[in-house]
Each structure stands twice: as structure tokens, then as C-alpha cells.
Amino acid sequence: MEYDITSRPSYALLTVSLDATESIRAESGAMVSHDAGIDIETNATGGFLKSVRRAFGGESFFQNTFTARESGDVSFAPPLPGDVDHVELNAETLYVQSGSYLAGAEGLDVDTDFGGARSFFGGEGLFLLRVSGTGPLFLSSYGAIESVDLDERGSFVVDTGHIVAFEDTADFTVRKVGGLRSTLTSGEGLVCEFSGSGTVWLQSRSQDAFLSWLIPKLPTQTNSA
């Protein structure tokens, strides 16, 4: 399997070249195009219960598996303008924020993992998407993606809305920015402090920040009697 990522970082397009019998699995709705020699199978990934858990984690109930009858290309794009990054897993586990899983090798295990109060208050819902195994994984973002090596940088703090993914070797705690007054006046809400070892992937834009800017500008509808 080979891949190419073009139009980075604002409107990234992922093109995967499959040899005959090779497969790749992607989020429902992520496909842009594919060659005629590639078949698509839609299924509830990992069985019904796992799919229900993934739905609670903010991911689609279904995923599509693309298998090449003969060598060919299939392309994918994230729903928001942003970047795509490749991570090669080798018997490893990544925790991925809702919406940042784009595609990956068919053999990767994609599941949700209960994150407790830290995940809930971190804006991730009650579940974090867990991707584990061996093979290529493709992450998407809103804005550009930057990777941070904790072994080199040490502990650092990031707004929860800018987190794309992190390795399970990283430790993290979620807290407010100061007290209530500073949270309101600074425009910030919750931050995550990472420490330990491993890599953290960040996105340069926040969906929550964009919606906070956009929603007050939308026209309101009034009902006439």
C-alpha cells in the first residue's frame, strides 16, 4: 500500500494506491473517488455493540472497506478544511479525538474506550476513540496538523479543542483556565496538560472556536402570526 497527501495543509486530499487484494477501511462519507477495480463493502465495524459504542464516541455507526480486485487508487478527504497526516502503528495504540479518524489499515482495531471524567470535561464526550494494532493510520484535522514530541519538549498545555490524537504512553490532566472569571474574560475554557513520553498531534484551528464566532452572526428566524 502506497499513499500520497496533496493540497496540504488547508484542503488535504489522501490518495491510497492498493495492490490486488489489498484493503483499506475509512469513515463513512470520507471517500472522494476510486478506480473501477475497487470494491466497497459497508459494515458495522467490529459488530453491533462495538459500533454502538463508536457512535457514542462521535464516530459513524458504519465504516466502508475498500478492496482492490486489481491495483487501483482510492481517495479520501475530511469533512472540514484541514490537513491529513500519516502515522505508522507497530503494535501501538493511539487515542483519537472524535472526527479525526479518517482511514486506516483493515487490520487496525478501532474501538472506543471509556475515559471517565477527564474525557468528559475535556470535550471528548464520555468516550475516546482508540486505534490499536499494526499498519498505516490517517488522521484528519481542522486546520494544519503539528506533532509534538513529549520526550523533547516535556510537559505542555494545550486547549482541548486543538487536540487531534495522542499516544497511550502520554499522561494528561484536564483543568479550567484559572477561575470562572478568567475563563470568561480570556475566551479560553478547558486545557489539557500533557506529560510523560510519546507524541501528541495538534490542529491549528478549533471547531468550537469557529462555532462560537459563527453562531452569533447567523440570522435569527421569526415566526409571523
Task: Outline the structure in words.
- The chain is of the alpha+beta class.
- The chain has a single domain, classed as Double-stranded beta-helix (4-Layer Sandwich).
- It is 15% helix and 48% strand.
- It has five helices and 17 strands.
- It has helices at residues 48-56, 116-121, 150-153, 180-186, 207-214, and strands at residues 2-6, 13-18, 23-27, 31-34, 38-43, 63-68, 72-76, 84-96, 101-105, 109-114, 127-140, 145-149, 156-159, 163-167, 170-176, 190-196, 199-203.
- The strands form three sheets. Strands 3, 5, 6, 8, 9, 10, 11, 12, 14 and 17 form a ten-stranded antiparallel β-sheet that branches.
- Strand 1 (2-6) and strand 2 (13-18) form a beta hairpin.
- The longest helix is centred in the first third of the chain and has 9 residues, at 48-56.
- The model is unreliable at 46-59, 116-126 and 180-187 (pLDDT under 50).
Radius of gyration based on Cα positions: 19 Å
CATH architecture: 4-Layer Sandwich
Largest sheet: 10 strands, antiparallel
CATH topology: Double-stranded beta-helix
What's the number of extended β-strand segments?
17
Summing up helix and strand content along with how strands pair, one would put the structural category as: alpha+beta
Shape: globular
CATH class: Alpha Beta
CATH superfamily: Mitochondrial biogenesis AIM24
Oligomeric state of the chains in view: single chain
Q: Residue share in helices?
A: 10-25%
Number of domains: 1
Query: What is the first-to-last residue Cα distance?
Result: 61 Å
